[in-house]
Amino acid sequence: MEKLTYEFQGGTFSRPKNEAKLVGVVGSGNLEVLIEPADLQGRCVVEVLTAARGFGAIWQAVIADFFARYPLADARVSINDVGATPAVVSLRLDQAAEDFLGDAQ
Amino acid sequence: MRDWSQQQRNRQARLDRAAAHTSGKVVAAQDIGALLEAVIEPGDRVCLEGNNQKQADFLAKALAALDPARAHDLHMVQSVLALPEHIDVFERGVASKLDFSFSGPQAGRLAKLVSANRIAVGAIHTYLELFGRYFIDLTPRVSLVCAQAADRDGNLFTGPNTEDTPVIVEATAFKSGIVIAQVNEIVDKLPRVDIPGGWVDFVVQSPKPHYIEPLFTRDPAQISEIQVLMAMMAIKGIYAPYEVQSLNHGIGFDTAAIELILPTYADSLGLKGKICGNWALNPHPALIPAIEAGFVESVHSFGSELGMEAYIRARPDVFFTGPDGSMRSNRAMCQAAGHYACDMFIGSTLQVDLYGNSSTATLGRIAGFGGAPNMGSDARGRRHASTAWLKAGREAREGRMAKGRIMPRGQKLVVQMVETFREHMAPAFVEKLDAWELAETANMDLPPVMIYGEDVTHILTEEGIANLLLCRNDEEREQAIRGVAGYTPVGLARDKRLVENLRDRGVIQRPEDLGVDKRLATRDLLAARSMKDLVRASGGLYDPPKRFRNW
């Protein structure tokens, strides 16, 4: 397993309510995404636990693009990856963020 | 004086030699080897019927078992190399030359024999191209075909899987060749005559019914959420704006996903009656929910699909059926229809390069093309107009010349649908297709490209749709492709500013630009989520092959 952490500042979307969102199921080629509100002085922290080593550069790009689409503030994003493709990661992240923000967006 | 009837006389000599082994047109199964030895001459061009579905498997076995001292140097012309015997004939020295179209299951063995100089490949064709050559410069001397049933006069009933039989028999019978048909049964009265007995020389009842591969069955349970997302993008981004009414779908889960969200997503967008009315398509089980929902007006097929017989019989308004109720397919007719009468082809691929050339060639395998290049190319001879065809043509021409100086014409929509990464993180977008290296190692004249970039109008990935019709130069085209290539090396090397500019112009459209709600991209959107759902949607008429029965 490899653990990767990314931090972003300057996000504007946040959700005050204390509720986490879990999207997706663990399975081959799949992953879990959890987004929860957290007091992070406005930062968004993304933690990736992945079964596939050596894809750091792609994760960096995938997460950065996600933050560009959904600039979250005071949010902790946890990803548990079992070899999902970037397509699956992006879709799950977007679905989780849409759910997380709900009508607050 | 020149003898103008040598072929006819040669035919008669073959028939005379055969007479000892036959009773009228009927040949006993155990005499098939003797018959083939009697009618086949060294160096003959022999057409062996075999497609990716129906196989003249008994005759293939008999041919491969011939004594190479008597039958040798045959030139095989055939649609598909699917069975081991199709390669055995070369390994055993019965045949030495090959012209074909597709070799999916035998692609690896074929590549090995080609590199060992055991097979001389004339060319790899599309189906329609190969059929065309049967009437020009590849006319068979002997054809070995396959039918459901025959009567004693040689009339053939091909049933739902007529496929290639008419075109092969016509080319052979009317040029003084010999036609031998294997059939599952010999009966007194056929349900209908698909091939007239006058065109058939011999019929042999095979000990076992011929093999048929259920090639077009896709279990909805295996469709992924990314495929649902891409299907939503296809419908909202291409089917709806172009009002695509006549079309062909390639084989695979990507297009099965589209078929399965017609009754849900497309219906919710108010598209019923506006898109997907007329199809050149095999009877895909995945199309059942859309047919039942009233989306589909007509389906003409290349071949049939196992398990769909009763359903087709019960829907003669949709499918082409005979007076006996069973379907009539015809690969040559349907290929022509798909090429000339369809507004769109959409299908999956394995590799796309920076010019949009699309290829399924991989190293160590000579797989060929099948029908995709005919479906997936602009029909330059088309002259009838439709909304989709005119809009595509307009987009390709707008702004290129001063108004009034451009000759208006339409263009076919050719959509390549591909996830940016395939299995094992193999990128679908590449700087150079594997086809180049394959051409070198297999000594081909050209890299085997399935669909040339100049024919591809749209590339659809999970990241977006690139509309290549709107690109005005090679640089734009390359950036449009990079702009939907995701996190592949080709995608990561994009010029971000140019890509954003293309997005502003609508050349690239992201799901959010199309108004596709990603939260709906789940398997819940599929009108059938399992094989059992398909059976249920058919009112119990669809009878899936055993291997797909997982309940």
Total domain units of chain A? 1
CATH fold title of the largest domain in chain B: Glutaconate Coenzyme A-transferase
According to DSSP, the number of beta strands of chain B is 19
> Helix coverage percent of residues of chain A?
25-40%
Overall pLDDT score of chain B: 95
The SSE string of chain A, one letter per element, is: EEEEHEH
Query: Which CATH-level-2 architecture of chain A?
Result: 2-Layer Sandwich
The helix content of chain B, as a percent range, equals 25-40%
Structural class of chain A: alpha+beta
* CATH class category name of chain A: Alpha Beta
Name given to the CATH architecture of the largest domain in chain B: 3-Layer(aba) Sandwich
Structure overview:
The complex is a heterodimer of chains A (105) and B (551). Chain A is α+β, with helices and mostly antiparallel strands and 105 residues long. Helix content of chain A is 29%, strand content 31%. The mean pLDDT of chain A is 87. Chain A contains two helices and five strands. In chain A, α1 runs parallel beside α2 (86-101). A five-stranded mixed beta sheet of chain A has the order 1-4-5-3-2, with helices on one face. Chain B folds into two domains: 16-205, 3-Layer(aba) Sandwich (Glutaconate Coenzyme A-transferase), CATH 3.40.1080.10; 220-532, 3-Layer(aba) Sandwich (Glutaconate Coenzyme A-transferase). Chain B is α/β, with parallel strands linked by helices. In chain B, α1 packs antiparallel against α2 and α3 runs parallel beside α4 (84-91). The A-B interface holds A 52, 55, 57-58, 61-62, 69, 85-88, 90-91, 94-95, 98-99 and B 224-226, 229, 419-421, 425, 461-463, 486-487, 492, 512, 518-519, 521.
